[in-house]
């Protein structure tokens, strides 16, 4: 339909089939067939003939406005691609919080480099407020953070929602009385992530809300290390759902327990970037690529990993 819309817009702007035919290097019968095809697809007439003059119908006017908008968007896209090719940039820097670096970033980098093997991605880690500063100061091209950011100098694009889940060694003693509930976390031996991250803050808020006092055996800043130590310590843990993969659970002989209250511990992982005008065409394309993927899937990273 894009070609027919272009032809239709030229006819309207020239107010003459003859002039449009000459500009498009089409015979008048061929031009008429394209207009007829567009009318057939839309199921409506685009022109009224008043003597030798063509007059737009109301649907014709709406279609012309859409054709102009589509043409402008197409030209913007072609310019962006041309700019990207001329600049030749195939690298960018992502800022990510420590938990995001372990949960979201591996799948993201794998997917992007799979599509563009020449792409060179650099990552800087830090706490969420540090990532915001890096992006604001243009020391990182974009940031991936596990929260929504309200900053007038930045754009924040929500990607997906995430929540905590309980992870236990198989045949853990708490399973003897059936599926655990939120109250079973009280006094449970647990290995938790180190303090100072959104994930640990979220965990502590959950404990405060339900007045829980787990027996914290260790605090570690590595999800992988936590999983490996659960059996040794006969302990449980709370992890972001986006981090867990079936093979990871199987390899460590663990089980994931659904608890309703944990689903309410929702956080939104977002992409942040500076004003689009200050970014290169290549960076704008990659931002659109990332945002479109998550929008297309409409699910959490745990349910729909990039790739």
Automatic annotation (TrEMBL):
The keyword Transcription applies. Keywords: DNA-binding, Transcription, Transcription regulation. It holds the Pfam family LysR_substrate. It comes from the Bacteria. GO terms for molecular function: DNA-binding transcription factor activity; transcription cis-regulatory region binding. The keyword Transit peptide does not apply. PROSITE patterns: HTH_LYSR. InterPro entries: LysR_HTH_N, LysR_subst-bd, WH-like_DNA-bd_sf, WH_DNA-bd_sf. Belongs to the LysR transcriptional regulatory family. PANTHER family: HTH-TYPE TRANSCRIPTIONAL REGULATOR, HTH-TYPE TRANSCRIPTIONAL REGULATOR GLTR. This is LysR family transcriptional regulator. It comes from Paenibacillus baekrokdamisoli.
